[in-house]
Amino acid sequence: MDYRVSLGDETKEVKINPGSNPDSEEYFVILGGDAGKRKKILVLKRKEDRIVIDIDGKVYSIVQLEWSPSATTFLANGKSIHAGSADSKKDQDSSSSLIATANELVASNFPAKIVKLLVKEGDAMKEGDTLIVLEAMKMEAQIKAPRDCTVEEVFVKEGEMVERGKGMIRLKFG
């Protein structure tokens, strides 16, 4: 499958193919088309909130921050990486944001100021309800509930500055 991967300002086209052994979690990433550089990826361990992989002998801990049907953002050893299908289009407008969750933790996708905190512990939220409004570079982004949930913990307050990847709210689903 073809993907477009961005790390900071650098974007590369990659192809990901499964390995030949169907019993192992082995994949091959090809950078720069079919004739490009080939890297072997082996999934070493899967946990609820992360996976541990080996890429050409180097071990990485991966935590998913954001997911949509056409893209994902994850942390790999502390670096934020965005990957989307090569033909994906931006599936949201600039006034709202897909929620960034890792094991039910809502995290900021970018450094920002919390303009509005619209929830408190114990609040029942419906899918699409706005949880937080963030501001970065004079633009606002609404962080919305991905599905029906209850606010379990709130780690921030209005006016606070948050770093990229900072946990802001813990949600309980179901």
Summarize the structure.
This protein has 174 residues and is an all-beta fold. Helices cover 0% and strands 59% of the residues. Residues 88-103 have low confidence and may be disordered.
How many domain modules? 2
Whole-Å distance between the termini?
A: 33 Å
List how many beta strands DSSP finds.
Answer: 18
Inertia-based shape: elongated
- Average of the residue pLDDT scores: 77
The helix fraction, in percent, is under 10%
Radius of gyration: 18 Å
Structural class: mainly beta
Q: Strand arrangement, largest sheet?
A: 1-2-3-4-5-6-7-8
SSE topology string: EEEEEEEEEEEEEEEEEE
Low-confidence spans: 88-103
Q: How much of the sequence is in beta strands?
A: over 45%
Report the total helices. 0
Q: Give the biggest beta sheet.
A: 8 strands, antiparallel, barrel
Structure description:
The chain is mainly β. It folds into two domains: 84 residues; 78 residues, OB fold (Dihydrolipoamide Acetyltransferase, E2P) (Beta Barrel), CATH 2.40.50. The chain contains no helices and 18 strands. The strands form three sheets. Strands 1-2-3-4-5-6-7-8 form an eight-stranded antiparallel beta barrel. The chain is elongated and about 50 Å long. 16% of the residues are buried. About 9% of the residues have low confidence.
